[in-house]
Amino acid sequence: MKLSVVAERRIIFTILFIAVALPLIFPIGWTTEVSEYTRMAYNLIDTTPADKVVIISFDYDPSTMTELQPMAEAMIEHAFMKNQRVIATALWPMGVQMAEQAFTTVLENYPDKKRGADFVNLGYKVGGMVTVQAMGRNLKEVFPSDNQNILYDDIPMLQNVKRLKDIAWISSLSSGVPGIKEWMMVARDNYGVPVTGGCTAISAPGFFPYVNEQRQLYGLLGGLKAASEYESLIGRLGTATTKMDAQSIAHLLILVFIAVGNVKAYRTRGRKKK
Amino acid sequence: MKRSIPLIFAFVVGVIVLLSEFIPHRPFNLIVSTLENWFMIISGFAILLGQISLIRMNSYKIANRLPDWQYYLAGLISFALMLSFGILWGMQETPGLLGTGEEIVNKLGMKPFDYLFNHAYMPLSATLFSLLAFFIASAAYRAFIIRGFESNLLMITAVIVIIGRTSIGTMLTGWLPESLQFWHIPNLADFIMEYPNSAAQRAILISAGLGIVGSSLRIILGIERSYLGGD
Amino acid sequence: MIQFMNILGIWLAAFFTISIFSFLYKDNPFYKFAEQVFVGLSAAYWLVYIIYSIMLPNLFTKLIQDFSGNAILLIPAFLGILMLMRLHPKTQWLSRYPMAIMIGTTAGISLLRYMKSDILEQVSATMINPFAASSTAGVIGNFLLIIGTITGVYFFYFSKKQEGLLRVPSKIGIWFLMVSFGATFGYTVMARISLLIGRLEFLLRDWLHIIK
Amino acid sequence: MRSTLVFILLLFISCLTANNFTAIDTPWDDGKSINLNWKLSPMTKTVTLQRQIDGDIFETIHKSTEFQGSFRDNGLEPQQEYIYRLQADFLDDNIVLQAEAKTKEQWFYLHKLAFLILLLVVCFAIVYYIQKAKRGKEYYIRRIAGLDSMEEAIGRATEKGRPILFVPGISDLDDIQTIASLTILSHLAERSAEYDTDLFVPCRFSMVLSAAREVVKEAYIKAGRPDAYKADNIFYLTDDQFGFVAGIDGIMLREKPAANFFMGSFYAESLILAETGFSTGAIQTAGTAQAHQLPFFVVSCDYTLIGEELFAASAYLSKDPQQMGSLKGHDFGKLLVILLIVFGVIFEIIGISFLKDFLSGAAS
User: Fold this and answer.
1) Do residue C84 and residue B48 have CB atoms under 8 angstroms apart?
2) How close A269 comes to chain C (CA, Å)?
3) Where are the beta strands (DSSP E) in C44-196?
4) ipTM
């Protein structure tokens, strides 16, 4: 049987589609192990004292929210558990909406957390690295007000927060540029604030060199798997865990594709030799 | 004139930024923070530039009835719709020209801008990226063929990591005794990520970093000037 | 009303999702339509955001509230307008002034930051005592890290003929690169599948109510 | 003699037990912080540090339970006098100590010394080699595998009478990769003019478009075929990332170019381009310094310029002295990096961490 390239592709696409859909309908419930880098990020947040002010930066947009939103929710929840106060910022315009959604979800379990006292959304600023640098000098200059137009000085939790140095940790959830790298380069390397964060699985390998002895990054959550690991660490039954089954099946399927591709190539080669 | 003054600008600005990194004394700090603030405003305008050329391009195609002009019209309409919603009623907590539009919020459940964002923009953008799942599967199918040593290395690591990053890896080699834990696939995948992968990424970072340092230096010194475009 | 609009919204989202997926079969009018709508929406989204989060708070509100105190902001505003001159071929050269300032700033900052984070910090992070690891695997890993970094950097050494013995480190360097590419590829599979899962979850849960 | 010794000893003991509180300007900084140090009797229960706001009004800035410690008060104004008060509660008693200091701005961040030295060395090397190259010194650049494909690809396109597609990445002219890409385009255009093969160049930004037209036109003139230059073959598609990719896909499917070149900065679209290009059966060469996208090009293209190879290729083809010199300077930097790592590792093994501490001093 000889199939054209296009037909072959369509078959692959259909099988993949079905293989991802099935486990979503019939969950299996496989478990995962917590990796070192996830634990590192968890420990940073876990050991920060109560009442400290922290930044979670939403540097992504809806296209990558499957991976990053569970991380955001888990980290906010973790910070709330430890009574830390959360500032949300965004280096991507759509990040502001992501932050609002994440707060809304987490607030369902923490109804007594108040905007302005326990968390605030300072909104989006353009400029990437340059802007982060400016935050290191003066946060108020960069964020004259929050996304509800409340002036910086009128936000109770920001009274003692003047610049990045007053922040206990920064977590950037990042799906590209600008993102975690800018935070690390400026906030960590220049101002010495611990930076952790999460990124899509695609960019994780590029960031691993920064999780080094110097702690340029305090751990890193890479992709959906790390998100589900984090959820299990804080004992939260989140969306990431349930999606891992589909993920595993899809991976298995791709391995099958590779095997079939090799068998096919081997045969073609055999035929050519003849 | 048209070229030399911009070159001087770039030089002065670049040198101030460089100096202020090492000099804590005033006024360097102040100049740089002003510069950074300006940068933000100018890039705001620069982003505007892209939007304007998009409108121009689409209107040109529609006016001249170029092939597929109907689709460009749809694009232009969605642009106008989203923009006017945003300007009239604002988004989320931010009020627009007509205030917060409570009446509409009562009917829609949210502001019109947010409605479009949630029900059109978000699904479109997420789905576009998810197409890559299919492409990656077909790329793996046809490209991960046993060939030379180097491409085999690539393929084998890819396979280990693909298995190791899921629950299957945990199950597959979970029975290994304590002494052989290194060969447990998730551990092996983590090992690859942590050491050989980090090493190679570091090498790319260092060499590309040098390339960027070099070209930045050439830009500041005015040796590299192609960013100014042709005359 | 709210309920109806909500259901309508979900159908709208489902329509766009399926339209985009239809590209996998082949390019078709639904896909083209969805794509252009996306282009339009995203451009408007950016524009609205720029207005509300930069132009208003950092420029116009400041100027309106205290004009003389913030008059210096007229300079970047003017430069920004010069930037727009790029739209016309005759006035395009005017945009060189703001471009030069922006590129000069970017060049200065990139020079510093890349030098520090990607060179200095990476070099000192590689200065490790390989024997200091707690396990044999760690010691091997440390050696791989050091050798991989050195040979990898050497692979990018261009101004010397890589022949004979000099070829060896370069060859090892490319092996490390290949391993790293494989690892990245494997990792990315996960990322892309995640997105697909997200979309299918929407279709199956919010739209068709097949899953809870 | 003996009495002096006893005196010193007594002084020493008294120093050990006396309650001590000092405020000193942080050295080598921007004059926005003061270091507070205290050393009290070990009986201390709590320590409260306060800064004077006005007259008798003090603001608490730090609390501690340690009898000996230090604290850095940040966020101050430069060149100002600050008065600090320390309240300590002992088991049965309490004391208040006062200290003052003036914040001073210095002219150098000492902890960035290593950074500055490395920066200067690398920058000087680059400038030095550029100057040397400009004065006519020729530098060798090793063969870059991906470039060999160029001739082959053009030849095949000519044979089949089909066009060549060149995509200069999706970044604007301010990205150095785009500039490198245009240099490669110039070379390619010259060859395609010689072979009389059509060359398509879709652009995402208007500035890239005008620069690309310039480059191609010059190349055609250089090849002696100004008549063969078609401005319309170099065109603007759209600013939108996916719109741009969809446009290129369309061109690949319709025109079926025999050779595709993807050079410059690419993001998520790399795989879409390469996969679509493959399905049309073109020879594909890619080059990018975008580390995340390299695997996809390596997997699905015939040849790939990896990372800095893109810049090297541009220098290799243009033989432009400033690019060659700069590349030689980068190579000097690489050698330096390798040496530093080797020495650093050796020092670490024998237990001397001076070099590493010095280099990473900037991080503290």
Assistant:
1) yes
2) 24
3) none
4) 0.81
